[in-house]
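Ticket reopened. Same input as before:
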Amino acid sequence: MIIGTKKQFSLFDLVNVVIISFFVILCLVPFLHIIAISLSSNAPIISGKVTIYPLELSFDAYTRVLSDISMIRSLIFTIALTVGFTIFSMIMTTMVAYPLTNPKLKGRQTFMYIIIFTMFFSGGLIPEYLLMKSLGILDTTSVLILPGLISPFYMIIMITFFKATIPSSLNEAAEIDGCSYFGILFRIVLPLSTPVLATLSLFYAVARWNGFRDALFYITDQSLYPLQLKLYQLVMNNMVNEALLAEGMNLGVQLLPESLKAASIMFATVPILIAYPWLQRYFVSGLTLGSVKG
Amino acid sequence: MMYKNSYLYRYWQLYLMLIIPLAYFFIFKYGPIYGVIIAFKDYNLFKGINASAWVGLDVFRDVFGMKGFYTALRNTFLLNGLDLVFAFPAPIILAVLLNELRSAKFKKLSQTVLYLPHFISWVIIGGLVYQVFATKAGIVNLVLAKIGLGPFPFLADKYYWLFTYVSIGIWQSIGWGSIIYLAAMTGINKELYDAADVDGASRFRRIWHITIPGISTTIIVLLILKIGDMVDIGFDRPFIIGNVIVRDFSDVLSTFIYRIGLQTGQFSNATAVGLFQAVVGLIFILGANYIAKKTTGDGIV
Amino acid sequence: MKQILPKKKALQKTALLLISMIMLFTLVIGCSNNNTANTANTPAPSETTKDSDKKTEAPKERVTLKVEVFDRGNSPDGMTVTDNLMTKYIQENFGDPNNIDVEFVAVPRSEEINQLNVLMAAGTAPDVIFSYNAGAIYNFATQGGLTDLTDIIKEHGPNLQSYLADSLQYGVFDGVQYSMVARRVHLQKYISLIRQDWLDKLKLPVPTTTQETYDTLVAFKDNKLGGDQTIPLGFALAPDSYEPIIWSFIKEQSDEARYLRSVTIGSREYPILMDGHKEGIQFLNKLYNEGLMDPDFALDVDRKRKQEQIVNGHVGMYSEDAVSSYWNDTSIAMTLEKNVPGANLTPFLPWTDFEGKNRQPSYTPSGMHIAVPVFSERAVEAVKYVDWMAQDEVIQYMAFGDEGVHHTIVDGFPVNNASDEAKKLLYNSGDMLIVTNGIDFGSMEKNIESTVLPVIEKHRELAKQARINSMKDSVQQPIQFDKPLESEAKHSVIMLDKYHELLVKSTMAKPADFDKTYEAALKDFMDTAGTEVINERTALYNAMKK
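Engineering reply: fixed in the latest deploy. New output:
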């Protein structure tokens, strides 16, 4: 029976919109502030006058950032790296999550414990560095992909979702029919799981995009610097701190204006912001269960 | 024998799928794990891990004997506990509210904006915190002054600071955290909602009886994972939002390690604390998992 | 039949999956291989000149010297910190004549200690490493990780011995020369500035003693010259705010007092147990409780708030690092003048001690520590490199390039002409010219002159006066032991934290509670790290005296 979709716009709905709007503003304002700084001139910035709109409008900062070829190259590299990493990670995570969803798999619990153990114990910076060195992947793209390939946290989420969306009757039916597990995976499980696949792809992509600590220690070739690393260097190297003062020759060092820092932040952040809206279309349930049953 | 054959025959594909990922874990996660031995050695960079002198539990004695350790430990639990009570449910509530929005456009727009804070690095946030929360000149206090309240020492009193710490944490993660719950909600059978409408159920009842149970597994799993994280705490938020005045509460294990360890090359100390956290964290998560399975049947293992 | 087909399909699917994964994998490895191939081709162009050189050079074996270089992420297009005009100059003028391939290894400036630790542990650190952190260098030395350079310098380092005569001693630990210490040219640490226009309005003279300064602060407050938000004394939780004040209260100046009753944190000396320290903090407490400084100063660690308050005209006077408010047209002074017409800042000396002197901290003439890892086989070449660099012509070129092309002579001083050429050659000259921090023109007056050349015309004299001020009655800090202290290196971060707690809590306490708060915080400082450090200092001092 189809019920008329016109419902009353209730008080609940009103309060809902108000609350959410409040949060939206709260989340938007700091961003507007950074944008405003990136488009302002130096004097109002250091006087602390810039709030959420630019003062003494200036596109200087963006001109400088966009004409810096190394930034553009880094952007392209980072995009390629993020896409490649996400694909690779998702494949691997799926490959480990799907078998572990099956309660009949022998050794399942052992495998889970082995993996969960790695969530807590790690060797630390130096043994990890030595490992990368002995694998010969220092200063290569691989070192930015391989070490973080599977996140146990995300794997657990994927398993949880698989368990929730795939009724066990399906597995049994498939086994009886002699359908292969690969088949079940590709033709049934994955199409039904687009929300979790989209979500985890987003998580992996954002993690790779925002992450730079690994590159900091493993990469010295500047053409392999992820964008966030370049940004981090920009910000850190331009804060007047202990280190800078110790150098004593800062007289020639022109600290970058705040607007340039802000413009660089926007440059390094905006591309990844596009990811979520783009992936949102996958946040609808896959084929309805009805068509799968029977 | 026949049974064995047919077991492998049936499941070999699953094992095949597992091979490469497990290889990954062994190489990249278990490979460097020998590094925890540093906690039991007087680590000399140049002798290497093996040749460095073995000191047994001395490092642990040393670290546990430090005044700051127990304060840092207590604060870690305090801040994480507050996060668990206030910041854990926040994205769930937001996801529910978003799900109830009538306008798809508004929903999409809000979602896109709400997760922006997640992308602002803590260094930047640090620069904004003062402007917002300063006692006299901060924006919040200025606004409150207009309606006759305050000024409140959001950053200058350690109890108020707890509020500030948790609030900023919520602000930063509420949008991002809601994504996963929204994804889970897409898996709820629409027919249930339709049936509820037929029965004339109110909004709250819909939420309480359909939406929440529909994502309960997700909530429990994330809760277990969060509990496993209780003894671990990020470095950035306490370090950046903390200050000298509220040190009593803002010093946590991560900032403690930073002070006594890495900056001064004290790898053994840092490793020892890390090892302590790992053991405690593992106990917590296994404990939480056990309880969850016993009470709700859901768990992560 | 039905059984077989699915099996075949399964096999096909598996094969497809494996193949696609292998393809992806090779793609990734392939990309990285390209990059490694590229990086292998880009280090010093010495690789390409090697062959031509081989024919003409002496029959000695060609070796590679790896030198650390800071990467600040600011290389011009087409260049990297490991391959640019300066690296070429070095290769041509030092490398080739000595049969050495000079290779540079980039280390990000912001993580230098961590990175250095990792490279030392992995045994892949360059032959020439450096750091401003003496404690870190000493750490390496005590673990047996650095080469003893004493004899090598005697034999191969005549130039550097004379050029670094004043600073080499700072690299001697336990009688062994572990590092070559660069020369630090500019010793000025702090300057103080006051709103001359406010003084004029109140018809007050520039204060020259602590008492006069205090009275002036009160006058500023009473007259609200900066509006309702007047902050007579601009103050942040940073050494450049508190050091000048605290040191002016210290009543003990002997070396012994400094050895036994101060602690060294980083590059600063904290006279925490010296006579007068408590009075200094008590003075801050007085200023705070009388509303003469910003009540939120404890939150201002990066000094941004202080700067904002200054440029908006609320602040009457302040101290700061000698990297001063006087600079180019976007400087603090210029912004202030823009925001508040008629405002102007004058340098002055506000704090006098019990003898009427201005005793101020200044830097020791020691800069960066340059060392050689013990596992390096190029110690001799490393010393030769620094020795070569310690020559006037080399320093001149590496700092300024060629006249007319990269710089012009202004009033007898070379000034970078901000051309593209100059940028390409000299953008990181400070990081390449490791043998000195700052350029020495022969005398302090000349050096100060050189630092104020880039300052905007109307502030130049003021900037100069400010720097001259900061050397008055100055005391070089920190005082040196035979070697850095283990306990100080270990507790440096904690001590700074605890000291700041002491300062903040005592300053913000009610005057009646001051004693109680100060003593409790001091006890906390001593219990956490202070006692251990003082004990080690005492022991070392006694050993030195023998």
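Confidence is low (pLDDT under 50) at residues 1-12, 23-59 of chain C. Residues 137 and 143 of chain C are 10 Å apart (CA to CA). Please confirm and we'll close it.
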